[in-house]
Design a protein that fits this description.
By secondary structure, the protein is α/β, with parallel strands linked by helices. It has two domains: 142 residues, Immunoglobulin-like (Sandwich), CATH 2.60.40.10; 87 residues, Orthogonal Bundle (DNA polymerase, domain 1). It has six helices and eight strands; from the N terminus they run αββββββββααααα.
């Protein structure tokens, strides 16, 4: 899990790039020398298998790396492997590799297919779609789309909670400052006394004007005399406000 979490950070930092193929991309000769194999790798349960290597090689190849290549499945479980094979249609693309046998393997599963000419890929002279279904015990070696979605949801949810928390704290802070400012306008009401009153549930001049001095003194560090003076001054302030 830490590896996948690190992968998520890398994806976010690099704008979510997909895994690169192990073999080379379309870059060699002309389209008469290119043949493509594409497909997906999924478990028996239908889940994509990401980051696993799919190998494709010509059954009778003679050690040429161009005829034995691999690529990793991307975060949707899809892969593309390009082999250097000849169409036979021009002198430099002979002899023809049409009808050759190509073996594809992944996670202990293999399929043998026959190369046929078609127009499915404009970058080559043919393409075959070979999908794999592997055992449910086969695990992804890279991030899948569902993993990114889960991690993204966690990140977004965490950010949303943090923003809400900050807004709530700011609102409460503004409210506390307002309460303290109102009370601190009273003669003799220092910041420390305002905090004492706040701790006792006194959040407005109205609260203070209706408070019992004895109970207020019992629930704060104020003396009863101090409490009585503050209550009286709060009552006077309320009268002036209502006048």
């Amino acid at each position: 899990m830490p590896r996948r979490a690190l992968g998520v950070l890398v994806l976010l930092a690099l704008s979510v790039v997909t895994p690169a193929a192990v073999g080379p991309a379309v870059a060699e000769h002309t389209s008469h020398h290119r043949y493509f194999f594409v497909g997906t790798v999924r478990t028996e349960s239908g889940l994509p298998v990401c980051g696993v290597v799919v190998r494709a090689f010509v059954a009778d190849f003679e050690g040429s790396p161009d005829r034995d290549r691999s690529a990793s499945t991307d975060w949707s479980g899809a892969y593309t492997v390009q082999l250097h094979m000849h169409s036979g249609e021009e002198a430099e693309a002979q002899p023809s590799d049409k009808d050759k046998q190509v073996v594809l393997t992944v996670a202990g599963t293999s399929q043998t297919v026959t190369v046929v000419r078609n127009q499915l890929n404009p970058n080559g002279w043919g393409q075959l779609t070979i999908d794999f279904t592997v055992n449910d015990t086969v695990e992804s070696l890279g991030l899948c789309l569902r993993d990114v979605a889960i991690y993204a949801a966690v990140v977004v949810g965490g950010v949303a909670l943090a923003v809400v928390g900050v807004l709530v704290l700011r609102r409460r802070g503004r409210g506390v400052r307002h309460v303290r400012a109102d009370i601190m306008k009273l003669p003799g009401a220092t910041r420390s006394k305002a905090r004492e009153l706040e701790g006792a549930g006194i959040r407005s001049l109205d609260d203070l004007s209706r408070a019992d001095p004895g109970e207020l003194a019992a629930s704060t560090n104020l003396t009863e005399k101090q409490a009585r003076v503050l209550v009286k001054r709060a009552q006077d302030a309320q009268k002036q406000r209502d006048a």
